[in-house]
Amino acid sequence: MVQEWQNIEPMASYDVVVVGGGGSGHSAALRAARNGLSVAVLEKEPAIGGNSQFAEGVGAIQTSLQKEQGLDQLSREEAFQILVDYSHYFANPEVVAAFINNSATTVDIFRDLGVPFHMITSFDPDSEYKVWHLVKGGVGVAVQIMHEAALKAGVDFFTSTRARHLVKDGDKVSGVVAEAEDGELIRLEAGAVIIASGGYTSNEEMRKKYVTMYDPNNAYPNDPSNNQGDGILMTFEAGGDSFGLGMLMLNGAWVRGKSLGSHLNCASTQPYLWVNLDGRRFTTETAVQEFQNAGNILSRQPEGVQFTILDQTIIDHLVNDGCEVGIGAYVLSGEKLTRLEAEIEEDLVDGIHVWKADTIEELAAKMGVNVDVFTREVAEYNEACHAGKDAKFFKPKYLFPIETGPFYAIKGHNGFVCSQGGIRINGKMEVLDKGSFPIPGLYAVGVDAGGMYGDTYPARLAGVSCGFAMTSGWMAADAATKALRDAPVTV
Prior knowledge:
The chain is of the alpha/beta class. 32% of the residues lie in helices and 22% in strands. The chain contains 14 helices and 19 strands. It has helices at 23-34, 64-69, 76-86, 93-113, 139-152, 204-210, 230-237, 263-268, 291-298, 312-320, 340-348, 360-367, 371-387, 464-486, and strands at 12-19, 39-42, 57-59, 117-121, 132-135, 156-158, 162-169, 172-179, 185-195, 220-221, 242-250, 273-275, 305-311, 354-357, 407-413, 415-424, 430-432, 438-444, 449-450. The strands form four sheets. Strands 1, 2, 6, 7, 8, 9, 17 and 18 form an eight-stranded mixed β-sheet that branches. Strand 1 (12-19), helix 1 and strand 2 (39-42) form a beta-alpha-beta unit. Helix 1 (23-34) runs parallel beside helix 14 (464-486), helix 3 (76-86) crosses helix 4 (93-113) and helix 4 crosses helix 14 (464-486). The two termini are 30 Å apart. The model has no long low-confidence stretch (mean pLDDT 94).
């Protein structure tokens, strides 16, 4: 049955229409325009930016910057093996290889645009894999630079315009129907459409439907981008297949409502003593050195909650010596948490996130956990710290006892930054149907595309999500350009 939206007359025609104005969408739009194509970007929010504006850097392998700094020890072959092994081969090797082989070009594109890089590092301070190319001021700076370049290249941006449906001419995608701010439906014809709508982080219905490995209610969204899965749902409607749906980029132990740069937030993520709502220790806390591991662990804990337990000696250590594990580039590993004590005092007033007590028993009561269980766990943990050996969970380091009052508890929650996994694609970023055949004229990039991951985010190679977003964007534009230029001329 023909739907009403299918009969709308085209308002304009473009070679390429990009659905989404985030990092991957900008990468695609700018590349397509520089390839000589006419391009439009549909962005449902009033302003551009998307998930990428909150990222700190891009993961890339064997880049010009790494070579200049002597940090190119990790080969492409080794990086590929790390990623597919990490996913237990649930990732799509074709997609992983495409990213690995092209990520260095992304860094060169950024450098040519004048994007300021200031450090190459990793999430885990102990990691030997330095592939995370940090952008001075964050990736939002890079997105803005790409935006200005795209405007100069002639890209048309339609903001407050939500893509709703893909138009097909036979098997080929030939346009997009979108909803303008006033509710009017408009249609843009296109030789190719690139889906870059940023995943489904904010779509509770999709989370409940697809996230099955754990209760999605045990994690809260800390992505303000209002990504509803529009591009994914449109693609499914047009016959596209799925790959890896149901994966969230979890990041455990964050204090709800706190900024990424909060020193209280950073203290909550430290690998000291953690207990759950029952007052029990439940993991080796060094899992937090790769944040998604902490998220995975917390996804199985009651309400996705943990308490980080500190004493005054540890507080002094964090303030005077620095933290063990940072929060990306917002609080660097080793940074002194000079604002921690002030933030603690501020939050003690409300008694929602932080508690302070003179005794362990009093602290347990304030936290609302079982006093006997908690005091026993603290005593056992202190014994392990003095012995220098954690026989319970085999934590190899950061064995600091909880002995010197006053004592503190910080309540952390599991959260997630973005969804990961979505539309089945091949190494050219072409969308595949349920028979694994490309749908002509349709591409998917960034977190709308599935294939890079298995069951969780591989922070071992830091920044690969943003790196893949930027790399897949320009790769899709190149593939679309080739397809359009090789297309037979019709008379």
